[in-house]
Specification:
- This protein is 37% helix and 23% strand.
- It is built from nine helices and ten strands.
- The protein has a five-stranded mixed beta sheet with strand order 1-2-5-3-4. Strands 7-9-6-10-8 form a five-stranded antiparallel beta sheet, with helices on both faces.
- Strand 1 and strand 2 (13-22) form a beta hairpin.
- Helix 1 runs parallel beside helix 2 (67-87).
- The longest helix has 21 residues, at 67-87.
């Protein structure tokens, strides 16, 4: 599961917790902090949990940074993390900071809730539709943006994409990663979702395989359509086996939640009006017995 669910001794309550951390992906320290927080909270949202009681921040400050760099960069990352937590209706009450050769940021999210507030990811049935809440391709976009300043790497992809295309994809990827999946968590209850998982380091194929194995019913996930950030599939193909985006193996960060819903409810879910800037969800596949 994306989060640990521990039944408590008191009443019908459960403690739900998750933790995650990673290295910087984008150039903007503030946005990196937001992405880190969104990534931690996404594990709760993948279980349909919309409220978080508390967050801790885990921060590693690089020993290679000058005092001036630390004083500029680290407060921005921390502010981004705290702002995203506040947007999610929670707050950061503590954590741990260490010195390390690398910058690392992450956290812990905790909530105490009733069983009705979370959806166990094991009730998918044949005929369900897989819905992805955000487009894929973040890793490709971030790497392609870095390659614009590395001629030997840019030469690999310059025939299939322009620098303007890469800049637009990078901006879309950055804002998608920083966007909370809280709305998706609420919609899981509205549309009676049977199971879900967030798509991160193992790509959509790895996470879908893991989710399929956890189901009580004997099901197979068939993925036939992938919503992907524009031009990222072409870049992935030009790079051979490096990313495997279309094959489903490309890693993602704080991207979409893959939700299993009844086929009769998938169309209303996909046709919902979305706030400005919120990526459209896409039907990604179906479940067979």
């Amino acid at each position: 599961m994306d989060s640990c669910v521990t039944p408590l001794r008191h009443g019908s309550l459960s403690l739900v917790q998750t933790t995650d951390f990673f290295y910087p992906l984008v150039e903007d320290p503030y946005m990196m902090g937001r992405i880190a927080c969104a990534n931690v909270l996404s594990d709760l949202y993948a279980m349909g949990i919309t409220e978080c009681d508390n967050m801790l921040m885990l921060l590693s400050v690089s020993q290679r940074m000058s005092d001036k760099e630390r004083e500029k960069v680290m407060p921005l990352m921390m502010r981004g993390f705290r702002d995203a937590a506040e947007e999610g209706g929670t707050s950061v009450t503590g954590g741990q900071t260490v010195l390390n050769p690398w910058i690392i940021i992450g956290g812990v999210a905790t909530v105490v809730c009733q069983a009705s507030e979370f959806i166990m990811p094991d009730n998918a049935v044949p005929g369900d539709v897989l819905v992805l809440t955000k487009p894929l391709g973040t890793q490709v976009a971030v790497n392609a943006h870095q390659w614009m300043d590395i001629p030997e790497k840019w030469n690999k992809i310059k025939l299939v994409v322009s620098k303007e295309d890469v800049k637009l994809a990078y901006q879309e990827a950055m804002y998608n990663m920083a966007m909370l999946n809280r709305t998706a968590a609420g919609l899981m209850h509205t549309f009676n979702a049977h199971a879900a998982t967030d798509i991160t380091g193992f790509g959509i194929l790895g996470h879908a395989q893991n989710l399929a194995q956890q189901q009580r019913c004997d099901v197979a996930f068939v993925i036939h359509n992938l919503p992907i950030i524009a031009k990222m599939a072409a870049i992935s193909k030009a790079c051979g086996s490096m990313f495997g985006l279309v094959q489903g193996s490309s890693a993602e960060t704080s991207v979409c939640v893959c939700v299993c819903v009844c086929v009769s409810l998938s169309s209303p879910l996909l046709s919902l009006r979305r706030p400005a800037g919120l990526p459209a969800p896409g039907a990604g596949g179906s479940l067979l017995c």
